[in-house]
Amino acid sequence: MGKQKRLGILTSGGDCPGLNTVIRAVVSHATLTYNWEVLGIPYATQGLLQRRTMVLNVHGLDLHGIDPLLSTGGTILGAMNKGDTLAQAEEIISGYQELGLDALIAVGGDGSLSLLHQLAQRGSWKLVAVPKTIDNDVALTTLSVGFDTAINTIADALYRLTFTAASHDRVMVVEVMGREAGHLALHSGIVGGADVILIPEIPYSIDQVCHKISELRDKWKRKFAIVVVAEGAKTLNGESRYYTDSCGQVRLRGIGEYIADQITNFVGSEVEVRVTVLGHVQRGGLPSALDRFMATVFGKAAVDLIAQENYSQMVAWQNGQVVSVPLNEVIAKSPVSVDPKGFVVQTARSLGIYLGNLKPDEQSTAILTCAESQQ
Ligand code: F6P
User: Fold this and answer.
1) pTM of the full predicted structure?
2) Phi-psi category of residue 40: left, alpha or beta, with phi > 0 → left and psi -120 to 50 → alpha
3) Ligand 1, pocket-test mutation among 11, 80, 282, 283, most atoms within 8 A of CB
4) Which is the closest atom of ligand 1 to the Cα of 177?
5) CA 227, CA 196: separation in Å to the nearest integer?
6) Is the CB of 178 under 6 A from ligand 1?
7) Is 135 a catalytic residue?
8) Whose CA is nearest to atom 14 of ligand 1?
9) DSSP of 191-253, one letter per residue?
10) 283 touches ligand 1 (CB under 6 Å)
11) Closest of 109, 100, 166, 99 to residue 334, by C-alpha
């Protein structure tokens, strides 16, 4: 066993289900296997700035009873999703040294990992990252903690809405998160039985959306419809719906209402349209079994990377295994968009779902690629 280390852990950016499970895995492995000390840093860079810590030891975890950290949502360390600035960089950087940290585990999405990587480079921190985001747009990992739970939450909402939509012959427009990447809308729309899925990567035509709804009624005699729209979806002219808040921040809002109004204008008042904005419900709740699994294997792997003194890495899920990937590559390649020609989009189209208009060069016949045979 190597020298005793003092490890910091923080959760950065928007919260998501599974963060506490990562913390639990890190604390258990670091303390039980390596006998290291683990300090939680509350509110990420704010905690470093204010030199605040939370002692996390294995006695605080209930490994022999019902351990709440295994399956509670949110993060016991707190999170911040404000546009962090580098203005106080020096103060934040020296927080790492003043707290006597030997290494830091950052659980974050692409934006916060990019910021923390910059700070780590400037301050010679020993940083290891764990990917988390309901948007699942962090590069070089097929899964980030939080995505699976959010898909399940949306799919459950779509399932519930389908029954009430069918009872009233209504069109239900469901607005989901996804500023730049539409993975959430796409995956949940497929498993939730959507008729239309609108995502930021593929511009939509409102005429085509309305045409799809009319077609369902006229051709298939189905009087209800489910439209899933990501908050960052754009028209063919590149227009999205947003507003500027009182602090001058531009926020996406209103696409659901907009689409609903357009449908009403097109199909007329005999078709009732209702809007559900799922909002932060998508970020709450208990982590799914898959998210708990990902959080646990990622947490252990992050601690192992520190034991191997392999820093500036992110743990990732590739081909059914946990691997480590260079953090600078992750940042350079993130956020990862939905591939308009990819198999998932083509699968949705094969189900008759309207998914926006492809450009001529994006037309693709999705074919299965054969995995190389393994001896
Ligand atoms: O990045 C994750 C995310 O959930 C986005 O999909 C969404 O636009 C954003 O966070 C919402 O952030 P906030 O909690 O700051 O409103």
Assistant:
1) 0.93
2) beta
3) 283
4) 6
5) 5
6) yes
7) yes
8) 14
9) HTT-SEEEBTTB-B-HHHHHHHHHHHHHTS----EEEEEETT--BTT----EEE-TTS-EEE-
10) yes
11) 109
pLDDT in tens, the chain (375 residues): 567 899 999 999 999 999 999 999 999 999 999 999 999 999 999 999 999 999 887 766 666 667 888 889 999 999 987 755 678 999 999 999 999 999 999 999 999 999 999 999 999 999 999 999 999 999 999 999 999 999 999 999 999 999 999 999 999 999 999 999 999 999 999 999 999 999 999 999 999 999 999 999 999 899 999 999 999 999 999 888 988 998 888 888 999 999 999 999 998 888 899 999 999 999 999 999 999 999 999 999 999 999 999 999 999 999 999 999 999 999 999 999 999 999 999 999 999 999 998 776 666 555 566 555 443
Sheet hosting strand 272-277, strand order edge to edge: 196-198, 225-230, 170-176, 272-277
- Alpha helices (H) in the chain, listed in sequence order: 19-28, 45-50, 68-71, 89-98, 110-123, 147-168, 183-191, 206-218, 255-267, 289-307, 327-333, 343-350
For ligand 1, the distance from its centroid to the CA atom of residue 374, given in whole angstroms, is 40
* Token pair 């910059």: residue: 118
81 lines ligand 1 (CB under 6 A): yes
Atom of ligand 1 nearest to the CA of 111: 1
Contacts of 251 (CB under 8 A, 6+ apart): 242, 243, 244, 245
What tokens does 375 get?
């001896």
Longest dimension (CA), the chain: 73
Cis ω for the linkage preceding 335 (within 30 of 0): yes
Count the residues in the chain: 375
Strand, coil or helix: 288: coil
